[in-house]
C-alpha cells in the first residue's frame, strides 16, 4: 500500500488463527508495507490464558483472522476466536473491532473448506469481509491488507 493512503496513521491489527495456517508467512510478506512491528504470541490453553490474550488484544483497531482451507479444524476454531475478539476487544467506539476472515492456502488442491461454507460463516459471525488468499503464491495478499485498512477507515 502507498503510504499516503494511510495518511501517516498507525493502526494495531491483530493477526490470529490456529497454528500452521500461515500467519507468520503472511506478516513476513507484509513487513515493509503497512506492518511495522510484529509480536508473536502463542495462545496454548483457553481460559487460563485469557489475561495474556487481553493484554495482546488491547487497543487493537482491527483483526485479521486466518484459517487454512485444507484444515476443517482451523476453520471451526475461528468461531471461538471471533466470539473471543467480539467480547474481549471493545473497539474505541465500544463496538467490536472489524475483522477480515482470510481463507489461506487456496493454492492447494486438497482443500476441504468450501467457499459457500466460508461465506455463510462470515455472514453469520459478522465479519467485515472474507477473502481467499495464498500467501505462498502471493495471491490476494495485498488486496487483503487493503480490505483491513478499509475496515479501519470505515469504522472511523
Ligand atoms: P503460522 O503457524 O500460522 O504462523 O503458520 P506459518 O506461517 O508458519 O506457516 C505454516 C506452514 O504453511 C509453512 O510451512 C508455510 O510455508 C505454509 N504456508 C503458509 N502459507 C501458505 C500458502 O498460502 N500455501 C501453502 N501451500 N502453504 C502455505
UniProtKB/TrEMBL annotation:
Domain of life: Eukaryota
Protein name: Ras-related protein Rab-7L1
Full-length numbering of the shown residues: 172 to 327 of 368
Amino acid at each position: 500500500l502507498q503510504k499516503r493512503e494511510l495518511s501517516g496513521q498507525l493502526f494495531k491489527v491483530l493477526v490470529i488463527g490456529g497454528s500452521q495456517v500461515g500467519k507468520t508467512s503472511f506478516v513476513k510478506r507484509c513487513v515493509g508495507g503497512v506492518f511495522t512491528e510484529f509480536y508473536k504470541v502463542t495462545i496454548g490453553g483457553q481460559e487460563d490464558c485469557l489475561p495474556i490474550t487481553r493484554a495482546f488484544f488491547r487497543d487493537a483497531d482491527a483483526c485479521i483472522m486466518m484459517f487454512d482451507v485444507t484444515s476443517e479444524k482451523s476453520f471451526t476454531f475461528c468461531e471461538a476466536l471471533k466470539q473471543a475478539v467480539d467480547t474481549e476487544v471493545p473497539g474505541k467506539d465500544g463496538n467490536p473491532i472489524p475483522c477480515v476472515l482470510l481463507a489461506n492456502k487456496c493454492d492447494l488442491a486438497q482443500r476441504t473448506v468450501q467457499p459457500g461454507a466460508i461465506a455463510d460463516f462470515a455472514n453469520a459471525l459478522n465479519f467485515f469481509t472474507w477473502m481467499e488468499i495464498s500467501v505462498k503464491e502471493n495471491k490476494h495478499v495485498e488486496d487483503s491488507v487493503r480490505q483491513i485498512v478499509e475496515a479501519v477507515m470505515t469504522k472511523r
